[in-house]
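The protein record minuted underneath.
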Amino acid sequence: MLCSIHIYIIAVRHNYRIFNSKMKFKLKRKNITKEDEKLIFRKYAKLFKKKDIEINKVICELFISLIYLYFDNPKRKLYKIFFPVIMANFMELGSINSVIKEYKEKKKLYSESYTCRILRQLDENDSLEISRIFRKILFKILKKNGFKNKGCCIAIDITAKPFYGDKRFLMVKGAKKNVGTNFAMQYLTASIVEEGVRFNLLCIPINALTSVPRKVSEIIYEIEKIVKIKILYLDRAFGNSKYCQILKLSKYKFITPITKNDKLKDLEFQIKEQAKINKNNYLLSKFYYIFYEDKPKEYRESINLLALFEDDKVFFFITNINDFSCNEYYSLIESYRYRFGIETNFRVDNIFSALTSSVVASVRYLLMQISLIAQDLWTLFNFLIFDEKRRQPREKFKKNYSVLSVIKARTRKLNFIWRPIITAVQFKRQIEQIL
């Protein structure tokens, strides 16, 4: 009896050693230098400049090269682990599991359980760092190919991905009810909202303990390093004293709608009662708005309030722009509709998003960042194949690149309508065949 127990223990230990030997592979992060980034940029800048290249193939190589650049492991092993992650964004209803099932023999991939165990080694910041490196390289390539960085219109927003699992996870936050759930994984995102160059600039995860105002300050600081900011468009969720203070300190021009409180509802009533305008006209009034005016001075925050009375409705916006005329403020409000370019980005991102049921935050964050990279590569593809004169159609209206000239450029009619040559779905299908 003792001998059999002893043999059983030896057998268990032997199996444990075999399992450990299989799990010896660990993801090793490189200390990436500026020289490393320069080398990969030079390589792809030259490739994208060539006329006889297949852009899709080069884009696939760039995608994979990001992984090789960030991790210090054998390329073949990295490819087998991250191929399902990348491909999941290009397959219809793709997931890591569905990719492995379809391509396991063809690409000699690892099993789903092993792949996911390796991916769990990722830190929550790894995917964000890969994304940062990608955008540094992306915008250097863009500048080499005619991107005019004379000041861009940037939108900042909070996007929520519905979550149906255990709500106790730190990565999950309460949100507005959407598709049957009040919980979501939230991200603070920033994008360029100009036709032809709607690139994502940054996507920072927000968990239950995140200080969002501080992250807004950080995201603006990071955007400054990527592109020049001409004006910021923000959602009404940012229309309060905390964000006003941060935005004023950043010294960038901004505009955001503000939620109607009792004071604004009363002002709306007075405007409607006193103003008499025709259907095709508008009335725009400028006020000096103070947050927490019933509190001591140190708690107060003042800002310009714009009240637009049009189509029998009153719309309220706050801005730190002081020296505009009535017509110029109206153009500013009209230009705000371009903020919805970020909403379009979210819809396109849903096309590229991979499916997952993982409860590991780092895996979910990785899939989110990879989907945004895939979306930006689609935008890059269209940018490169477009006629040079029509890549950034509104640039020709920016004379002295002042805020006012940019705003007018956004509201002026074009002699053509900018549309992507290849849709997101067509791009997905092409990349799926090449990968």
User: Anything to note?
Assistant: Residues 254-319 form one domain. Confidence is low (pLDDT under 50) at residues 16-21.
